[in-house]
Design goal:
With 544 residues, this protein is an all-beta fold. The protein is built from no helices and 38 strands.
Length: 544
Amino acid sequence: MKIPITNLVALFIMSIPSLGQNMSEEITSYNQIISPSTEAKATQYLSLKTQTAQKSRLDSTITQEWNVTTGEYENQSKDYYSYNNKGENVSVVHYNWSSDLNKWIEYKKEELGYDTYGNNNLFTSYLWNSDSYEWIGSVKQEYVFNALGKITLSLFYQWNTVNNQWFVRNKQESEFNDNGDCTLYIISMFNSTTNELIPYLKKEAKYDSFGNELLLVCYNWLENKWVEDYKNEQIFDEFGNLSSFVYSVWDALNNLWEINTKYKLDCVYDVTGNKTSDSKCYWNLDLNEWDHAVIQTKYEYDSSGNVIVKIEYNWNAENSIWESDTKYEYDYDANKNVIMDANYYDDGYGNWIGLNKLVYEFDDEGRQLLKITYYWDKVNNQWVYSYKYERQYDSHGMNTFAATYSWSDEEIRWNEIIQNKWDYVYNENDMIMYYETFNWTNESWNNQTNRSYYYSDMNAVEVTTTDNLSFSLYPNPASEYIIVRQNQAEAGFLLQLFDQSGKCVMQKDCISCEVISLDHILSGVYLFRVSKDSISKTGKLVVQ
C-alpha cells in the first residue's frame, strides 16, 4: 500500500549560463561577469529526502483542481520519481489526467545523471508521442565539473526529428583560477549550414587576490580567428571599492585599443572604514584631461554600520556648486533586515519630494510578514498608503496565508484585492503529507487546488544472483506502477511480466531505472522476469 509522502519536494530548477553584457559603465559584480552559473549545479532537483529509517523515498505526487460546477476535486497532474542505488533522483515522469479516457496519460519525462562527486552532470527531457507510443527526445544538457564544483564544460542538445538523434546546438567552456574566479569563457554555436559548432564569443578575465575583476577582454569569432571587441579595466582601493574604470573598444583599422569611457571614483572613509562620500569624474577624451567631478554621493550610518541616508549630488558647472538630486533613507530591525526604504528627489528649490516608500516587517527567521507601499501626496507633502501585502507562516515555516490590499482614501480603510491560504497536513515526523489551496471570494474561502505526496514503503524485491545481476522492484504489492532499478553500474535489462497462464502481458527494455505504468494490467498475481545478457531472475508481483 502507498502512503502519502512526508516531504514537500521543491520544483525542478534549471540554471542557464549567462553570456554577460557589453558594458560601458561601472561594473559592480566582480567575479561573476563571465562566470556561467558556477556556484550552483547547472541543472538540479532540490534534495529529495529519505523519508524513514526504512529508506522510503518520494514516490509520486498528485495534483488536483477544484471543479466549481461539480463541487469536487478532479485529477490534474501526477509525477513519478525514481532513484539510483545511491539515493540520487534519476528520473521524473509527468502525467496529465485525461477526463475522456479516464486515465493518466504520459506527457513528459526527465532523466538525470551524476558524477562521482554527486554533481548533476546530465539532464535529458523527453516528450511522449501518443501515436508511436514512445518517448521522443526534446532537450539534453551535459556538464563537466572541476574539483571546486565549477562547471568547465556545458553541452546543450536538441533532438533531430529527421535523423532521430541528438545534435549539439551550443557549447560553453570555462576555466577558473584557484579561487574559483572564471578566467576564460568560450561559447560555440551550431551552424545549420555547415552542420558543425562554430566559435562565437570568448571572454578572458584577471582578478586580484580578493576576487575583484581587474581586466575583462571580449572577443568575437570573425574569419576563422578571434578578434578583439572591447575590454574593461578596473582598479580597486584598499577597502575593495572601485576607484577607476576604463572601457575601450578595438580599432580594427589601426589595430589598437581606443578608450571609449574612462572615469574615476574618489572615496572618503571614516575611522571605522565606512565610506562617507565618493565623487565621480570622467576623462575628457578631447582635452586629454580629467573634467571636474560630475556626481557626488554622501553616506550616513547607524551605530551598526548600516547605511541610513544616501544623498546624490550633481555638479552645476555654470554656478560651480553641488546641487542635491536624490535622497535615499533606510531603517533596519535588530536582525539587519531593511524595514524601511524611501527615496526622494530635489524639486530644485531645496525641497525633498517623495518618489516611493516601502515598509517591511519580518519574523525572527527573516521571513517577510508585511510589506506596505506608499506614494507621495504633493498637496499635503506626506506619505500616503498605497498597497499592503501580508504573509503568515506555520510552525514548519510554510507560507499559509498571503493577501494583497489597496488603500481607499474615501473609505479610510484597506480593501482586499486577493487573498490565498494554504492548509498543510503533516505526519508524526513533521513532514508534509498533503496541502490544499484556497482563494477568498464572495466573502468565503473557495477551494482551488490540492497536492498529495506519496512515498513507497520500499517493500521491494531486492535480488542479487551469483552471476552479479542485482536489481530492485517496488512497490510490491503495486497498483498503478512499479519501479525497477538495476543496482550495478552497468545498466540495461529486459523486464517481462507473465500471467498465471504463462502469457507474457508486458515486455520492456529498461535502462538503469524505470517507472513502469500498470494501467493496462489487471489485478492479480504475476511472475516477473528480469534478464540481462544470458542471466535472468524471476519473482512474484502482486497487482492490486
